[in-house]
Amino acid sequence: MTDTSQRPLRVLAAMSGGVDSAVAAARAAEAGHDVTGVHLALSANPQSFRTGARGCCTIEDSRDARRAADVIGIPFYVWDLAERFREDVVEDFIAEYEAGRTPNPCLRCNEKIKFAALLDKALALGFDAVCTGHYAQVIVREDGTRELHRASDMAKDQSYVLGVLDDRQLTHALFPLGDTVTTKDEIRAEAERRGLAVAKKPDSHDICFIADGDTQGFLASRLGKAEGDIVDESGATIGTHEGAYGFTIGQRKGLRIGTPAADGKPRYVLDISPVNNTVTVGPAASLDVSALTAIKPRWCGAAPEGPGTYTAQLRAHGGETEVSADMVDGELRVTFTEPVRGVAPGQAIVLYDGTRVVGSATIATTTRATADV
């Protein structure tokens, strides 16, 4: 059974201003919990964040959240976590790209903000749990231990970005949307039945702190231009760039290479080297990865003992792939049953045992199917 069927709790509902978090708060209140809504102010200058209902951190989002709380009939507050967000999410994002890695800021926000800074403050104020609109399930076993599982509806599952939560955080997490097999249209219809004005509000997809959606421009404004070479696998220079941080492994578009490949086929980013400021490109086949090592593991419960066979997810909206994994000298060593493409250092790998989330780690190095990287 899930947490929402447990005794009535004092619940702090994180309300982003979107339809999912509003319905989650409403369901928690309807289940008999004592719910208080809170909107997180994550920018010292909210006008610099996305407008037009595309993010989750704007002034208009705060107003939408407040209106939803009024309709639900729960107290509502705005908490300023802008400085913590800047340090733990925005600055981390910039530093990771500068180092040639590809971070996931939403995953970092869940780890550092919603289920660390917010949860710690909630517990200090006497709340029992934090409630969000994520599509995932916390299942309580007969012995009282908790497990994080995929949502009932795989099409909306968001367990990947929650794979950083540890046992303590799961103990205080509520995901009221995770155990219902409903389409997003049905969630919107429920919001409309409840009188929530956010029923038709568009979903947010992009990075909330990049106002115009231009990640490369955002990074350039903070890191400055740094011209360097684009090279092929032989090391020959075939183009130039204005900052290696503006590329990601597997990228095909926007390479601005004047010289076509000998075989006439598209080229992809294979490697990013901040040390010599070069970007290496090559054919799609060279993206195939057979193994990887990952660091900073976080387990959703007890850590695995010894090697095991799992499925793994490498992107928030990616599919599953079969792997074998083991902890060796503090690192997670993963081998893929079949090669996968476009695996980038800095990304998170999340391991699953069936629908259960075992844990996650940050990819440090990869081994290509044809050569070591």
UniProtKB/TrEMBL annotation:
<dbReference type="Pfam" id="PF20259">
    <property type="entry name" value="tRNA_Me_trans_M"/>
</dbReference>
<dbReference type="GO" id="GO:0000049">
    <property type="term" value="F:tRNA binding"/>
</dbReference>
<dbReference type="Pfam" id="PF03054">
    <property type="entry name" value="tRNA_Me_trans"/>
</dbReference>
<protein>
    <recommendedName>
        <fullName>tRNA-specific 2-thiouridylase MnmA</fullName>
        <ecNumber>2.8.1.13</ecNumber>
    </recommendedName>
</protein>
<keyword id="KW-1015">Disulfide bond</keyword>
<dbReference type="InterPro" id="IPR014729">
    <property type="entry name" value="Rossmann-like_a/b/a_fold"/>
</dbReference>
<dbReference type="InterPro" id="IPR046884">
    <property type="entry name" value="MnmA-like_central"/>
</dbReference>
<keyword id="KW-0963">Cytoplasm</keyword>
<keyword id="KW-0547">Nucleotide-binding</keyword>
<comment type="similarity">
    <text>Belongs to the MnmA/TRMU family.</text>
</comment>
<dbReference type="GO" id="GO:0002143">
    <property type="term" value="P:tRNA wobble position uridine thiolation"/>
</dbReference>
<dbReference type="GO" id="GO:0005524">
    <property type="term" value="F:ATP binding"/>
</dbReference>
<dbReference type="Pfam" id="PF20258">
    <property type="entry name" value="tRNA_Me_trans_C"/>
</dbReference>
<keyword id="KW-0808">Transferase</keyword>
<feature type="site" description="Interaction with tRNA">
    <location>
        <position position="134"/>
    </location>
</feature>
<keyword id="KW-0067">ATP-binding</keyword>
<keyword id="KW-0694">RNA-binding</keyword>
<keyword id="KW-0820">tRNA-binding</keyword>
<feature type="region of interest" description="Interaction with tRNA">
    <location>
        <begin position="156"/>
        <end position="158"/>
    </location>
</feature>
<dbReference type="GO" id="GO:0005737">
    <property type="term" value="C:cytoplasm"/>
</dbReference>
<feature type="binding site">
    <location>
        <position position="40"/>
    </location>
    <ligand>
        <name>ATP</name>
    </ligand>
</feature>
<comment type="function">
    <text>Catalyzes the 2-thiolation of uridine at the wobble position (U34) of tRNA, leading to the formation of s(2)U34.</text>
</comment>
<feature type="active site" description="Nucleophile">
    <location>
        <position position="109"/>
    </location>
</feature>
<dbReference type="InterPro" id="IPR046885">
    <property type="entry name" value="MnmA-like_C"/>
</dbReference>
<feature type="binding site">
    <location>
        <position position="133"/>
    </location>
    <ligand>
        <name>ATP</name>
    </ligand>
</feature>
<dbReference type="InterPro" id="IPR004506">
    <property type="entry name" value="MnmA-like"/>
</dbReference>
<feature type="active site" description="Cysteine persulfide intermediate">
    <location>
        <position position="208"/>
    </location>
</feature>
<dbReference type="GO" id="GO:0103016">
    <property type="term" value="F:tRNA-uridine 2-sulfurtransferase activity"/>
</dbReference>
<feature type="binding site">
    <location>
        <begin position="14"/>
        <end position="21"/>
    </location>
    <ligand>
        <name>ATP</name>
    </ligand>
</feature>
<feature type="domain" description="tRNA-specific 2-thiouridylase MnmA-like C-terminal">
    <location>
        <begin position="291"/>
        <end position="363"/>
    </location>
</feature>
<keyword id="KW-0819">tRNA processing</keyword>
<feature type="domain" description="tRNA-specific 2-thiouridylase MnmA-like central">
    <location>
        <begin position="217"/>
        <end position="282"/>
    </location>
</feature>
<dbReference type="InterPro" id="IPR023382">
    <property type="entry name" value="MnmA-like_central_sf"/>
</dbReference>
<feature type="site" description="Interaction with tRNA">
    <location>
        <position position="347"/>
    </location>
</feature>
